[in-house]
Write a structure and sequence with these properties.
Elements lengths: L44 E4 L2 H12 L4 H15 L9 E8 L4 E7 L22 H5 L10 H12 L9 H9 L1 E2 L2 H9 L7 H7 L12 E2 L2 H13 L2 H4 L2 H11 L10 H5 L4 E3 L2 E5 L2 E5 L6 H12 L12 H21 L10 H4 L2 H8 L32 E6 L5 E7 L9 E2 L2 E2 L12 E2 L2 E2 L17 E4 L5 E5 L7 H13 L5 H6 L3 E3 L4 E4 L8 H6 L4 E4 L6 E6 L2 E6 L6 E4 L1
Parallel strand pairs: 18-19
Antiparallel strand pairs: 1-9, 1-22, 2-3, 2-10, 3-6, 4-5, 7-8, 8-15, 9-10, 11-12, 13-14, 15-16, 16-20, 17-18, 20-21
Amino acid sequence: MIRHAAVLVLAAAALAGAAAWTPAPAQTVSGGSESRGGAELDAGLVAAANPLAAEAGMAMLRRGGSAIDAAVAIQTTLGLVEPQSSGLGGGAFLLYWDADGQSLHAYDGRETAPAAATPDQFLGADGEPMGFFDAVVGGLAVGVPGVPRLLELAHERHGVLPWAALFQPAIALARDGFAVSPRLALLIEQDPYLDRFAAPRTYFYRPDGAPREVGDRLANPAYAATLEALAEGGADAFYQGPIAEEIVETVRQAPGNPGRLTLADLAGYEARERTPLCLGYRRFEVCGMPPPTSGGIAVLQMLGILENFQLEEEAPGSLAAAHLLAEAGRLAFADRNAYVADSDFVEVPLDRLLDATYLRKRAALVQRDRSLGIAEPGEIRQKAVAAPQYEPPSTSHFVVADAEGNVVSMTSSVENAFGSRLMAGGFILNNQLTDFSFRPQIEGTPVANQVQPGKRPRSSMSPTVVFDGQGRLLAATGSPGGSRIIGYTAQSLIALLDWRLSPQQAVSLPHVVNRNGVTDLEAGTAAAELAAELEALGHEVRVRPMTSGLHALRRSGEGWVGGADPRREGVVLAE
């Protein structure tokens, strides 16, 4: 059995003695493309959302670094070349498998609300919730960033290379400049708020006011200086001194929508090691992050529900598979919305939510010939209230395996694309406080995910790892995509474990996602062709673009194979 860093929530029979898993022959899947990844190796593998970030991680692995060393290099580079999605000004969740110690570690670098935050801070003068972007743009939604402390904590415990060495690839790119990618150029062009403040207007736009275009050389000396300070002084250089002062001034002086962040908030931030959540799924063990993210719970609930159906007998992309995925999503989101928030502030009934008997009862609500419609949360305790919450799809995910078999699955975010649209120290500041419920109570009953000082907003980030029947780490996956992250990640796990697809095939599958409402089908794929048949089963259907950013790896003999989502600019590098 696996020795974890802390006691796990286990909601199924022990896996000891289960048969070893043998991958089936590769299948041809609509939407898949083996050309984007799939390299086998004996040394190390990186799958990340930008080639420059992936190369920075591989550079650390070539030097004998650990998966954590590579993760620091990847994340600091992503903050430069993919600033719309993640960076030092945001938060993250990280799972780390220590192959030598045979232990799984879960690190929480989620942002926190300032001490001056109040439950009603996103209500207007009329007592009604602010418009989403009225709250997002400016300082009011900026939480205390967590990425620097998370990276430092993980490196202190699992790093091999010197801390300062890990920043060199990103520093060089920031000094010398990099070519603006098609995705970055498109998002700059499309964003209606990015030119509102001086720093992003100067950085992301040409002197004549036109948005930067594909191939433009973009240097960021301010970011290079921030990284140099971190390399020399550790995370303290971020949370205290000139960088912290610039963050606070930027937030509190934001024109039109100032925030409440203080130097004391930054100085007091702590990244935390949490207890991983694990669930037996068929002959595997699947592990994810606990609260304050809802991702681990909801993904495991979906698997626990779907375990009651023979998914291996359903073809990928079939009507039956789409229906079952959607129905499991409905049930998981009903519970997620009602019961899950920061467990340091709210009692989250983890044991009940992941109890095998409870999940069988939830699965019994699923009918193959009709949709159950809007699902109610399970009767776990006094009926909870759920408030609407909008999570825009802007985040980044990557996976790393090193030569020793250590593995990282990490998801990081600034929340909305370009976060608050504020910049300090050359990086984007998050707007993660809008992941709280704007309504603190409904009909007099407090909402679990209401704003409170020091609280971490509920997330959907879902970094996930899988162990085989012998306790060996078998696979890792995760995605960006707002609250659809949960559906994207669960589908990738079904693809890897039930349908035995390669990582590249798994991350390329057309998406079907339900968040206890409309069943979303990915436009331009075979999934969209299921619309009429799903409607006949009672689904309300919407066909829309669904830009995930899945990255996955899976053990192959003594090496690894990887997959990068073809919807973004990710790559798999392996040596």
